[in-house]
Structure prediction request, 235 residues.
Amino acid sequence: DIQMTQSPSSLSASVGDRVTITCRASQGISNYLAWYQQKPGKVPKLLISAASTLQSGVPSRFSGSGSGTDFTLTISSLQPEDVATYYCQNYKSAPFTFGPGTKVDIK
Amino acid sequence: EVQVVESGGGLVQPGGSLRLSCAASGFTFSSYVMSWVRQAPGKGLEWVSGVTGSGDSTSYADSVKGRFTISRDNSKNTLYLQVNSLRAEDTAVYYCAKGGMVRGVGLNYYYYYYMDVWGKGTTVTVSS
Prediction:
């Protein structure tokens, strides 16, 4: 099975800061990588699929990159509404595992 | 509007069973892979099970294999998860989620197990 790891597990940044979250797969998954945002008490929301394809309606300050085993989610200018936990997910092969999550809050 | 709505959760004793349902609307249900994802209190997301559009192929997380069964009735636009031999560690919010689709060249469509539409979830509590 493919294991997903994320770093850091949590971070605190100021409004306007550039934030980068890393996700690593235990084996190559090409670009079959999705990113989700889950705000406190809310349902998860798909941000990015295929490692870098932004979903409709997602602000352009979010971007994704990577292929193979190493991926990043970047928020170019952190906003208060971005406080959430972010998860990556492998969808190349079952089980379609999620990473453990990265909690982002405002300093 | 594309949506999925879960039901069937509740309080059950260890060793008990439940059948979760997910009613889908607003899309061609039979075309899309579907998944169940759960989230234990204060914990992260855990993919539980998935099924292809036709229902001919299913997959499970190791933690539920042999105890949970996913199925779908495309005539009713409904996804199911039969959960048996429940344990305390199965306590969670169970989300139903629609898979994604990418349009290829010409009339080719590709369906994937990322989740672009989520329900609000149904809570399963396993306790004596």
In short: Chain B is about 0% helix and 55% strand.
